[in-house]
Design brief:
Strand content: under 5%
Shape: rod-shaped
Radius of gyration: 23 Å
Order of helices and strands: HH
Number of helices: 2
Largest sheet: none
Helix content: 55-70%
């Protein structure tokens, strides 16, 4: 019975953590533009 109770508590804690991560999001939206750009020769060194 003790192992069953421990498993249930673990599942509840995991579900709670998942809800918190879901509600907080991933930290914002990624930039809409950008990416690779050609560097001028003076920035290469």
């Amino acid at each position: 019975m003790k192992a069953f109770r421990r498993a249930v508590v673990s599942l509840i804690v995991a579900a709670g953590a998942m809800v918190v991560v879901r509600l907080r999001g991933s930290g914002g939206t990624p930039p809409r533009r950008g990416g690779w750009r050609e560097l001028p020769p003076d920035e290469l060194g």
